[in-house]
Design goal:
Elements: E1 7-16, E2 27-37, E3 42-46, H1 53-60, E4 69-76, E5 79-80, H2 86-92, E6 97-100, H3 104-107, H4 114-125, H5 131-144, H6 150-153, H7 163-175, E7 181-185, H8 193-210, E8 213-217, H9 221-227, E9 230-235, E10 238-244, H10 245-250, H11 255-262, H12 285-288, H13 292-300, E11 309-310, E12 313-314, H14 328-331, E13 342-351, E14 358-368, E15 373-378, H15 384-391, E16 397-404, E17 407-408, H16 414-421, E18 424-427, H17 431-434, H18 441-453, H19 457-470, H20 487-498, E19 505-509, H21 517-534, E20 537-541, H22 545-551, E21 554-559, E22 562-568, H23 569-574, H24 579-587, H25 593-606
Parallel strand pairs: 3-8, 3-9, 6-7, 7-8, 15-20, 15-21, 18-19, 19-20
Antiparallel strand pairs: 1-2, 1-4, 4-5, 9-10, 11-12, 11-22, 13-14, 13-16, 16-17, 21-22
Helix pairs in contact: 4-5, 5-7, 8-24, 9-25, 18-19, 18-20
Length: 607
Amino acid sequence: MSSEPLLSFQNLTITFPGQGAHSRRGTEVVHGIDFDVQRGEVVALVGESGSGKTVTALAAVRLLPRGSTIGGRILLGGVDLLALDEAAMRAVRGDRIALIFQDPVGALDPVFSVGYQLVEAIRRHRPGIKRAAARERAEEILGLVGIPDPRQRLRWYPHQFSGGQCQRVMIAMALSCDPDVLIADEPTTALDVTVQQEVLDVLLDLRARMGTTVLIITHDMGVVADIADRVVVMHDGIIEEQAPAGELFADPKAEYTRRLLAAVPRLEGVAPEGSALADGAAEDPALADGDADGAAAKFAAGHNAAPSFVAGQPVAAEVGVAETVLSAAEGSAVGSGPSPALQISDLHVTYAGRRAAVRAVRGVDLSIESGEILGLVGESGSGKSTIGRAVLGLAPLTGGTIRVEGVDLASRSGSALRDMRKQIGVVFQNPTGSLNPRYTVGQSIGEPSRAHLGLRGAALSARVASLLESVRLPAAWAHRYPHELSGGQRQRVSIARAVSLEPRLLIADEPTSALDVSVQAAVLRLIEDLQQQYAFACLFISHDLAVIDQLCDRVAVMEQGLVVEQGEREQILRRPVHPYTRRLLAAAPVPDPAVQQARRAERLAAS
C-alpha cells in the first residue's frame, strides 16, 4: 500500500443547524476527528447509532442536511473535497467516490425499473457510452451481486424485490462506474447470511482485482472481523480507538470498545460446514445431495437422529420408534388445551404477474403457543416476510388458513376484524418507510393508544414517555421527527409503537437489523421482558442466527417458499438435518478475525 492515504479526514467537525429560538448556534455532532484510509484498504467505521459514523461518511460526498457546517479537511488523493464547488463535487460523486446508502428501499425510485435506474447512473458518469452497452454493463453488475436471472430482473421495479435484493441493486449501482473509493453504509444490514457472505466476497474481490478502497460503516462485528484491515471506533462524535482488526479484537484498549464487543451476540456450538450433526452422527448421502425428501424417508425408516422436521414432514427419532413426531401445526390440534396464539395451516401466497404468477409461499404449516417465540429464518426472497404480511392481511391469501387464538381471520370483517387486529403488534423491516415523516415521534407511538384505547392529553403523553424510555430513548424526543433520528433510533420508535397496545401476538420482521450491537442487546432484553410480562407469542423474522439463538424457543427455516426444517432451537442450530440449514449456519460470520480468515481460506480452497 502507498504511504500517502487515498482518503484522509483531518480535524473534521460537523455541526447541524439549530432548531427553534433557543438552538440557533447549532449542535456539533462530530468533534475534530482524524483518520486515514490507505489505497486498497478496507477500513470499518463502527459505533452505536448516533455516534456520528454515517454523517462522517456523508461529509465526504457533501450530502449533509442543508445548513450543516463542516470544519477541517477531507482529502481525496491530496485534493480537499470541502474546497470544491458543487460542479466539481458532482464529478467526484459516483465516479471517484460511490456511496451505498443504508436504506435501499428509500434510495430507489419506485416509479422506474431497476434497469432504467442502473442505466441512468452508468450513462450519467460515462456520457459517451451507448444505451445498449450501458444495459449490458447493468446486467453484468446485477449478476455480480447475486441477483438471479439479471436480464429479466432489469425490467422489475423496486417493490418486486425483497429488502435484501433491493440492497444488492444499490450495491450494483454503486459499483457500476468502478469508483476509487466505495463508502458502504451498512451494506449488509438487510441481507441474509449467505447473501451477506457473497456481497462481502464481492467487495474483497473488487479490492483484489481493481484495488478498490472500501470504507464500510457497520454495527455487525462479524462483518468487521471478516473483511476489515483496520477498525475505527466512534462514540458520541469522537474516535475512541483505531487499530488493525486482529489487534482490536484481541486486545481492545478503550473501555467503550470492550463494552461494544461484549454486547455482540454469538452463535455458540454450531455444527461446522459439511457436518450433518454436531454430535458426530454419520453424514447422510441424501443430505449431501440436497435430497430432503430422501433424507426424510431414511430418517423415518430408522436413521439415528434427534427429532427435526424436514420439508414439513415429521421424522422419527431413532430405530424402532413407532411414535410419529408431530410437526408444530399437527401437534397443536392434539388434546383439549387452549388454541395456539397463531396457527398457520397449508398457507399459500401467490402474486399475479404479467407473464407468470409468483408462488411466494407454498403450503406452509406453523404454530406458535402463547408465551413462545418462533424464529423464522431464510434467505431474502424465501417467503419469510410474506408470511408475516399474510398474518397482517397485507399479502394475498390464495390457500390455507390463519388463526389467531383460534379465530380464523378470513371469517372476520369490519369491526370484528379490527378488534382482532388490535391483538397483533408489528415491527416492520424498514423503519423509515413505516413511520409517517409528517408525524412526530410522539404522534407515531401514541396513535394506536389514541385510536384504540381512547387516551388523550396528559394520559397519552405519559404513555408515550413511558414507551420511549422502555426502548432507551429520552422522553423529550417525542417532539422530534423521524428524519432527525438515526436508523437505529427510528427502529426503536417502531418497536415502542408495536408494543403500545400490549398485543397477544407480535410480528417482528427484522426488528434488530438496523441496530448497533449494544442497542440490539437492549432491545432483545426489552422484547424478552415484555414477552415474559404479557405472555404474548412472537413470530420473529430475522437473518441473524445469533439473535435467533439468543431469543427464540423454536426455529423454522424457509427456502423458496417452503419450510424445509423446523424444531427446537437447540436441534436446528446445533444438529441441523437439512443441507440448506447447514449452509446458513456455515455462512454466519463470527466476531473473530482469525476464525473468519480460516473459514474464508477453506471456502476458497474448496471452490
